[in-house]
Amino acid sequence: MTIRLLLVDDHAVVRSGLRMLLENEPDVEIVSEAGTARQALELVEQISSAPGSGPVVVLMDIGLPDLSGIEATQAIKRSWPEVAVVALTIHEDEEYFFKMLQAGASGYVPKRAAPEELLTAIRTAAAGEVYLYPSLAKLLVQDYFSREKGLATAPEASDLTEREKEVLAYLADGASNQEIAEVLFISPKTVARHRENIMRKLNLHSRTELVKYAIRKGIIQP
Q1: Domain segments of the chain: what residues?
Q2: Tens digits of residue pLDDT in 38-71
Q3: Distance between CA atoms of 47 and 166, rounded to whole angstroms?
Q4: Same fold: 3-137 with 153-216
Q5: What is the pLDDT of residues 95-137, one digit of tens each?
Q6: What gap in Å lies between CA 64 and CA 66, rounded to an integer?
Q7: 116's torsion region: left (phi>0), alpha (psi -120 to 50) or beta?
Q8: Given the DSSP bridges, would you call strands 28-34 and 3-8 parallel, antiparallel or unpaired?
């Protein structure tokens, strides 16, 4: 089985280094490379429709100049679900990590990783499995236990009034106070007051916590 690999990074030097590292692997064929997300999408379409066998894997940087690697991954998985995406990035914080997984990535490897780790990630993704760099895999475990604890201890939305529940849903979906006011035919000041009451009753301290709460309780979909 030959893995057809597409390199996506906005730095030509990085792509050149990756090509030198990977092109001599007997089971890897570097079919093309792209410097932007839109180029990557065009190439994925060409590669997927071209004659040939073997899985297609996209080695995707997150920081691209047009669309983010996260948006590009979402687009790839939406149109070509059989194509595997492995994130290769400088970002090791949980925000990017979870967003890439939610977008459909089959692997997440920091650029500081050893070459053997990258090759393992590519081969694992090509086989239809998921590879996570060990230090980042811990984030999944921590997130799982925090979710379990949160479900057990979080205040219930039943403590809110019906209007507060409506405002909560709109807030969690990213709407501004002004937008909520227009939809519910109330003033922005009233929305702000509802928001303060929601945060106080649910013991939340930021919009991020509010969104996570709404996802856990099924109020919105991630």
Answers
A1: 3-137, 153-216
A2: 999 999 999 988 776 789 999 999 999 999 999 9
A3: 46
A4: no
A5: 788 888 888 999 899 899 899 999 999 999 999 998 887 766 5
A6: 6
A7: alpha
A8: parallel
Topology annotation, domain 153-216: Arc Repressor Mutant, subunit A (1.10.10)
Architecture of domain 3-137: 3-Layer(aba) Sandwich (3.40)
pLDDT digits (tens, 9 = 90+) for 133-163: 776 655 555 554 455 555 445 556 667 888 9
Q: Dihedrals φ, ψ of 144, to 5°?
A: -60, -50
Of all residues in the chain, the percent with pLDDT exceeding 70 is 88
Question: DSSP letters along 17-86, please?
Answer: HHHHHHTT-TTEEEEEEESSHHHHHHHHHHHHHSS--S-EEEEE-S--SSS-HHHHHHHHHHH-TTSEEE
Please report how many Cα atoms fall inside a 13 Å half-sphere around the Cα of residue 42, on the Cβ side. Answer: 7
How many residues comprise the chain? 222
Higher pLDDT, 125 or 217: 125
HSE, CB side, 13 Å, CA atoms: give it for residue 164.
17
